[in-house]
């Protein structure tokens, strides 16, 4: 059995300036996006992307992730708390960000980028889909360092069961690590290999939606559910699991109905 080491959430302090681990994880996510984006563009020159395009994508994506992710956390999961503490809304290291909100924010940002650049929406989302999971992994590692979003109680005999002392003395699943490995590493490998060859338009986007939806749905069985605007819903599923259902359905439909790329 393990005990969470209770990392200091502040990685670096220089005078009055503090750099949080959570912020560093997002910086890592953005750097990985740039690096992997350039590698993807080089291995698939037929897609017609260059370094400047990827820089522009990152700019729009950062806005979508930060604004959408934070608003999603506030509106989907803890509206009562944040409406009572509005000054904490921009403090991203307190409570973090919602993936589903960030996802919606990125969709809007990519639509705006597509209009500005003259590219089709699906052309944009098919390109970025393999670049996203490593950022998700970095975010989950940030959650683990912060000691937030801990797991459900686990069998004490599970070798990696972990006690989060500020919660209770119950051994729990380190669900943040499960998600980093599943929605992060595993999904990245699947999409990176899938997108290496020409696919029907919308297929890579569909693979991302389906893959993330299934992996996140499964991970929620090991993670203490967030309060959510509806709490635990019918069939005993969490808010996050029900938010995954339309993602899974949309992903399956996109994979089945995508048009041949030209």
UniProtKB/TrEMBL annotation:
Organism the protein comes from: Pseudothauera rhizosphaerae
InterPro entries linked: Lgt
Pathway it works in: Protein modification; lipoprotein biosynthesis (diacylglyceryl transfer)
PANTHER family: PHOSPHATIDYLGLYCEROL--PROLIPOPROTEIN DIACYLGLYCERYL TRANSFERASE, PROLIPOPROTEIN DIACYLGLYCERYL TRANSFERASE
UniProt entry keywords in alphabetical sequence: Cell membrane, Lipoprotein, Membrane, Transferase, Transmembrane, Transmembrane helix
Gene that encodes it: lgt
Function: Catalyzes the transfer of the diacylglyceryl group from phosphatidylglycerol to the sulfhydryl group of the N-terminal cysteine of a prolipoprotein, the first step in the formation of mature lipoproteins.
Regions crossing the membrane: 20-37, 57-77, 97-114, 121-141, 176-194, 201-219, 239-257
KW Zinc (keyword) present: no
Keyword hit for Thylakoid: no
GO MF term list: phosphatidylglycerol-prolipoprotein diacylglyceryl transferase activity
Gene Ontology CC terms, in alphabetical order: plasma membrane
Protein name: Phosphatidylglycerol--prolipoprotein diacylglyceryl transferase
Broad enzyme group: transferase
Family membership noted in the UniProt record: Belongs to the Lgt family.
PROSITE patterns cross-referenced by the UniProt entry: LGT
Location within or outside the cell: Cell membrane
Binding site for a 1,2-diacyl-sn-glycero-3-phospho-(1'-sn-glycerol): 140
Membrane topology reported for the UniProt record: Multi-pass membrane protein
Enzyme Commission designation: 2.5.1.145
Classification lineage: Bacteria, Pseudomonadati, Pseudomonadota, Betaproteobacteria, Rhodocyclales
GO biological process, one term: lipoprotein biosynthetic process
């Amino acid at each position: 059995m393990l005990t969470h080491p209770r990392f200091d959430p502040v990685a670096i302090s220089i005078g009055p300036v503090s750099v949080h681990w959570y912020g560093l994880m997002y910086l890592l996510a953005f750097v990985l996006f740039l690096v992997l984006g350039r590698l993807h563009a080089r291995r698939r020159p037929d897609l017609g992307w260059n370094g400047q395009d990827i820089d522009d994508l990152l700019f729009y994506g950062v806005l979508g992730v930060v604004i959408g992710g934070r608003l999603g956390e506030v509106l989907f999961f803890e509206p009562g708390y944040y409406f009572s503490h509005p000054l904490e809304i921009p403090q991203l290291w307190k409570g973090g960000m919602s993936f589903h909100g960030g996802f919606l924010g990125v969709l809007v940002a990519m639509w705006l980028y597509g209009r500005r650049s003259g590219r089709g929406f699906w052309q944009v989302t098919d390109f970025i889909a393999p670049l996203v999971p490593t950022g998700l992994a970095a975010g989950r590692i940030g959650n683990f360092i912060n000691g937030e979003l801990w797991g459900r109680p686990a069998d004490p005999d599970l070798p990696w069961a972990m006690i989060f002392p500020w919660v209770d003395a119950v051994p729990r699943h380190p669900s943040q690590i499960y998600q980093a490995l599943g929605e992060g590493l595993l999904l990245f490998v699947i999409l990176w290999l899938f997108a290496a060859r020409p696919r029907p338009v919308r297929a890579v986007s569909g693979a991302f939606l389906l893959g993330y939806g299934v992996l996140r749905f499964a991970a929620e069985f090991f993670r203490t559910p967030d309060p959510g605007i509806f709490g635990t819903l019918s069939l005993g599923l969490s808010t996050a699991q029900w938010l995954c259902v339309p993602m899974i359905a949309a992903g399956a439909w996109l994979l089945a109905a995508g048009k041949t790329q030209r």
